[in-house]
Specification:
With 264 residues, the chain is α+β, with helices and mostly antiparallel strands. It contains seven helices and 13 strands. Strand 10 and strand 11 form a beta hairpin. Helix 1 crosses helix 3. The N terminus is likely disordered. InterPro entries: DUF1444.
């Protein structure tokens, strides 16, 4: 039988393609190991670098035809890990919302992350990480990196949210009948929970505003009295957390005063 479509790459096949592309961008880069989706590399006398390919591979599985574009995008970001870090630009600092799973996994990879990097708890599920929005990647910020800015943490928080608000000029609400999806272009949707947009004028729902943030590029919205749409939202969140890339949370959240809390 004529085989019209190539089978998807297995994890290590994908990893090898990733390394070969990265090596072209970084002459002298050596492959230390490749186990599943964990790639370790070394350049000159520097410490080994660990690359986790889970998100890039998940993105590839959802869109196999975009293999080359996906590897190009992610290796551009990996390349920056080997370049000297430049001074942080205050106007590029933004907040990134992730959940406790991301924090726990990051600490496993880098035990000093908790003491070295800038982040804070948002609620029992979510955390806000502060980062610099760069040309090809998002660089999470170390505490020492903002010292030259001579800015307090409270001022940093306000500045980051203000910067994000300036970037989020293309917020789009999709859907209707009490069931909505909010997008802004693909990378920072989860951070929308920090903006002052959550009101009945923007989201006419039945009851209090309830949201799901299953992935970084998607926020789902309905009302606390809308049992049918809440169930649909739960199913969608479960599906995305099982098969999607850049997952954020598997919980629902309800607006309480000016902040989202876990919906029990």
């Amino acid at each position: 039988m004529l085989k019209l479509f190539k089978s998807k790459l297995k994890e290590e096949e994908f990893g090898r393609k990733y390394f070969q592309k990265l090596k072209k961008k970084i002459p002298g880069l050596e492959l230390v190991s490749l186990i599943g989706l964990e790639l370790r590399t070394k350049l000159d006398s520097r410490d080994e670098m660990r690359h986790l390919l889970d998100n890039s591979y998940a993105e590839y599985k959802n869109a196999p035809k975009d293999l080359n574009e996906i590897i190009e995008k992610y290796t551009n970001a990996s390349k920056e890990l080997f370049e000297p870090r430049k001074s942080v630009k205050e106007e590029r600092i933004i907040p990134i919302v992730k959940d406790y799973r991301f924090l726990n996994e990051t600490i496993k990879q880098n035990p000093s992350f908790e003491s070295d990097f800038l982040f804070e708890k948002y609620n029992e599920e979510l955390y806000v990480f502060y980062a610099e929005d760069r040309e090809t990647t998002i660089a999470y910020l170390k505490k020492e990196e903002i010292e030259p800015l001579e800015i307090s943490f409270n001022d940093l928080r306000q500045k980051a949210i203000q910067n994000f608000g300036n970037l989020a000029t293309n917020i789009e609400r999709h859907g209707g009948d009490g069931e909505y999806m909010v997008t802004i272009g693909g990378d920072y949707e989860s951070s929308l929970i920090l903006l002052d947009i959550w009101n009945s004028d923007n989201f006419p729902v039945d009851g209090e505003i309830v949201i799901g943030v299953p992935a970084r590029d998607l926020v789902l919205v309905t009302g606390s009295n809308d049992k049918k749409n809440i169930q649909k939202m739960k199913e969608k969140i479960r599906e995305i957390n099982a098969t999607g890339d850049h997952v954020v949370s598997d919980k629902l959240f309800i607006m309480n005063a000016d902040k989202f809390e876990i919906l029990e």
